[in-house]
TrEMBL record:
Its cofactor is Zn(2+). This is 5-methyltetrahydropteroyltriglutamate--homocysteine S-methyltransferase. Residues 429-751 form the Cobalamin-independent methionine synthase MetE C-terminal/archaeal domain. Pathway: Amino-acid biosynthesis; L-methionine biosynthesis via de novo pathway; L-methionine from L-homocysteine (MetE route): step 1/1. CDD domains: CIMS_C_terminal_like. Keywords: Amino-acid biosynthesis, Metal-binding, Methionine biosynthesis, Methyltransferase, Repeat, Transferase, Zinc. Belongs to the vitamin-B12 independent methionine synthase family. Catalyzes the transfer of a methyl group from 5-methyltetrahydrofolate to homocysteine resulting in methionine formation. Its EC number is 2.1.1.14. InterPro entries: Cbl-indep_Met_Synth_N, Cobalamin-indep_Met_synthase, Met_Synth_C/arc, UROD/MetE-like_sf. Residues 15-315 form the Cobalamin-independent methionine synthase MetE N-terminal domain. The keyword ATP-binding does not apply.
């Protein structure tokens, strides 16, 4: 068995790097929304948030983490952990400096905005589907310990009998993920570090012994920061904490840390790395927290293999057991899933089960109480999953193995374009929307009643048909050119597909925080994917029967379906993506047979799954593009294939977007003042393009002048014959009043632009 260096007390034998904060029954979500509605006051909110944090602590102790040695991390953000760092260090954006309200009011202003005060921008955390609030820094930004939440939560845990480990985003990551106006955020490191020193001192004074600095930025490649620079800032953060007498756990996670953290080994006491997606760095000077339990997926750990890996590592130096990342990205507890098919259920581990896995491995590594039954159960589960029916479906595999040579290519675009123009007869600068219309309270209520069995299927379908009728009529009145059915039948653009394809299962309570109070319930993609019967055709065909205009079929693409689900880990993602693609190709064929001439295949997550490391990107872009093409290439040349992407940092993936070979691409652009348009022009994009002219993420109605301005920018850079006019994403989170007004303005703006074009 391993012994530990005498100068550094061994890090706890088993730990996790973070835990879901939304609450086992989404208690925190409810408290947040009640407070925002004014239904509870500040004190009641704080009490609810505190009760939720304490319940989590007690649970972690019950699951086998030690309460006395900093095994248990405490973070407990109300809304977002990056926002917590912003508040802790007083990094108020220039536009709110001197007038940010105290307490919760200020926190919500940053998170949610109010009137003219827009919220902080939101962006995805690394390659996950969690959104953090982006710090807004500038040349006058200053930092100091401005808020005691991190210290208070440590104290609160102590009162509950847990000597916990406070967690904070480290300085390199905080700055690397920030946005700077007139400065490069990383250049503010010298100003920021003293605030970390203040925090460390306050924690030490409160009795903390360890601090966890989350520095995942170290394992990503950045366009405007070098690894050496990030390492130097991370080291300075660790130095500050050690100077205050704390021991430092540096947590990187989220990918391969080898080659990235070695130079920091002497500056910290322990390093937590992802051994599921990466290999072990050689960090003998520090304790290695070996992330052998997957923090981002829901499959049971192969405990035998994990223990073997841990033992091998223990030969090299001190090791303890950890998760590969925080458990923030998985649901709380499998025990809540009583409706899940028992066999599938026996293959899974949610956050609580992962904590138990960590505890079992830690005990086995110590060599004391090896829980043979845990190991035996894991072994049996893994063997069972391998052999279970549906995991490998001969039909699906044979079909993929014998794809025709042209399965991923259509005839050249110019030929398709001519056929489509003749078939579709659209005006110049055609107007359309991205697919969803507002999901009204009535629709949601009907869906909930249908799920509870209070509204029968026929009556529910009638509610949905009425909604489709209303949406089609509205679009006719507004004068849009290509119509949609509005997606009222879809609770979620991925879950709906998962519910209708074989190989997927849905959970009842498997909520994962997406941002703030929002949580999604990712489906579990466990087996080979196929489609038993058409499932969107009925809705699209119904909408088409109501109008002479073209109705766009609406599908979710393979990459997005994978990105927003928990995906099987026993084969490469590329293979799974191709299976989904074939199911979508079947759906497109049925849409065509039903007379639909335009089909949109959404890939909003294409950018999100982009690997954090440059060297891994070409392979990812290759398989993701190939899957999209497999889904769409069998369409007739006359069928116009659209895609929709919702992000504005376009440059990194412009070649891939071109590679998708869609006839029309709509993309987010309104918030970034059409920057995308220049990237496109530079690239020489030659197919249809709809840079979003209306930012649907805000309830604001775009004005006539704004729309004219955005369209003018677009027409300057993009040939008119390629240009479409559309909002930048679906309208499902908007209300009807603002939607009608905004789309009316959009149609008018397109008409004015057409007139301008005709004059020129
Ligand atoms: C996140 S992208 C959303 C696309 C989908 N078709 C919608 O309109 O809602
Ligand atoms: Zn979108």
């Amino acid at each position: 068995m391993t012994t530990t260096a005498t100068s550094t007390p061994a890090f706890p034998g088993g730990t996790i790097l973070g835990y879901p904060r939304i609450g086992r029954r989404r208690e925190l979500k409810r408290a947040l929304e009640a407070h925002w509605r004014g239904a509870i006051d500040d004190a009641a909110f704080h009490e609810a948030a505190r009760a939720n944090r304490l319940a989590d602590l007690r649970r972690l102790v019950a699951l086998g983490l030690r309460a006395d040695d900093a095994s248990i991390p405490v973070e407990g953000a109300h809304y977002d952990h990056v926002l917590d760092a912003t508040l802790t260090f007083g990094a108020v954006p220039a536009r709110l400096r001197g007038r940010l309200p105290e307490g919760l009011a200020g926190e919500w202003l940053l998170a949610r905005g109010d009137g003219d005060d827009v919220p902080l921008e939101m962006t995805k955390w690394l390659d996950s589907n969690y959104h953090y609030l982006v710090p807004e820094l500038d040349a006058d930004s200053t930092f100091a310990l401005a808020d005691s939440r991190i210290v208070d939560r440590f104290g609160e845990a102590g009162e509950a009998g847990v000597h916990a480990r406070p967690v904070v985003v480290g300085p390199a990551t905080y700055l690397a993920l920030a946005k700077g106006t007139g400065i490069r955020p990383l250049d503010l490191a010298e100003r920021l570090l003293p605030a970390y020193a203040e925090l460390a001192a306050a924690l030490a004074a409160a009795g903390a012994t360890w601090i966890q600095l989350d520095e995942p930025a170290l394992i990503a490649d950045h366009d405007d920061a070098t690894l050496t620079e990030l390492q130097a800032i991370a080291r300075a953060g660790a130095d500050a904490a050690r100077a205050a007498g704390l021991r430092v756990l540096l947590h990187v996670g989220h990918g391969d840390a080898a080659g990235r953290v070695e130079p920091l080994a002497d500056a910290v006491d322990a390093i937590a790395v992802d051994l599921v997606r990466g290999t072990a760095p050689d960090v003998a000077a520090a304790q290695l927290v070996a992330g052998v339990v997957h923090g981002r997926n829901v499959w049971r750990t192969d405990l035998d293999a994990a223990l073997q890996a841990l033992r091998a590592l223990a030969e090299r130096g001190p090791v303890s057991v950890g998760t590969s990342t925080t458990l923030l990205h998985v649901p709380h507890d499998l025990a809540a899933e009583q409706a899940l098919e028992p066999r599938l259920r026996s293959w899974l581990a949610f956050a609580d089960q992962k904590v138990e896995e960590v505890a079992a491995l830690a005990a086995a590594l110590r060599g004391d109480e090896v829980d043979e039954s845990a190991f035996a159960a894991a072994r049996a589960s893994i063997a069972d999953r391998r052999a279970a029916p549906g995991v490998r479906d001969g039909g699906v595999r044979a079909r993929l193995a014998s794809l025709p040579a042209d399965a991923r290519s259509r005839i050249p675009y110019p030929e398709r374009d001519a056929l489509q123009r003749a078939a579709l007869d659209l005006p110049p600068l055609p107007t359309t929307t991205i697919g969803s219309f507002p999901q009204t309270g009535d629709i949601r209520a009907a869906r909930a009643r249908n799920a509870r069995g209070e509204l029968n299927d026929a009556a529910y379908a009638e509610v949905l048909r009425a909604e489709v009728r209303r949406v089609v009529e509205l679009q006719e009145e507004l004068g849009l050119d290509v119509l949609v059915h509005g997606e009222p039948e879809r609770n979620d653009m991925v879950q709906y597909f998962a519910e209708h394809l074989d190989g997927f299962a849905a959970t009842e309570h498997g909520w994962v925080q997406s941002y703030g109070s929002r949580a999604t319930r990712p489906s579990i993609l466990w087996g080979d994917v196929s489609r038993a019967e058409p499932f969107t055709v009925e809705w699209i065909a119904f909408a088409q029967s109501l109008t002479d205009k073209h109705v766009k079929g609406m599908l979710t693409g393979p990459v997005t379906i994978l990105a927003w689900s928990f995906v099987r880990d026993d084969q490469p993602l590329a293979e799974t993506a191709d299976q989904v693609a074939l199911a979508l190709a079947d759906e497109i064929a049925d849409l065509e047979a039903a007379g639909i001439r335009i089909v949109q295949v959404d890939e909003p997550a294409l950018r999100e799954l982009l690997p954090l490391r440059r060297e891994a990107r070409p392979a990812y872009l290759d398989w993701s593009v190939r899957a999209f093409r497999l889904a769409t290439a069998a369409a007739a040349p006359e069928t116009q294939i659209h895609t929709h992407l919702c992000y504005s940092e376009f440059n990194t993936v412009v070649d891939a977007i071109d590679g998708l070979d869609a006839d029309v691409t709509s993309i987010e652009a309104a918030r970034s003042s059409m920057e995308v348009v220049d990237a496109l022009a530079e690239h020489g994009f030659s197919r249809g393009i709809g840079p979003g002219v209306y930012d649907i993420h805000s309830p604001r109605v775009p004005t006539r002048d704004e729309l004219d301005e955005l369209l003018a920018t677009a027409t300057r850079a993009i040939p008119e014959r390629l240009l479409w006019v559309n909002p930048d994403c679906g309208l499902k989170t908007r209300g009807y009043a603002e939607t009608v007004e905004s789309l009316g303005n959009l149609v008018e703006a397109a008409r004015r632009a057409r007139a301008d074009v005709a004059v020129r």
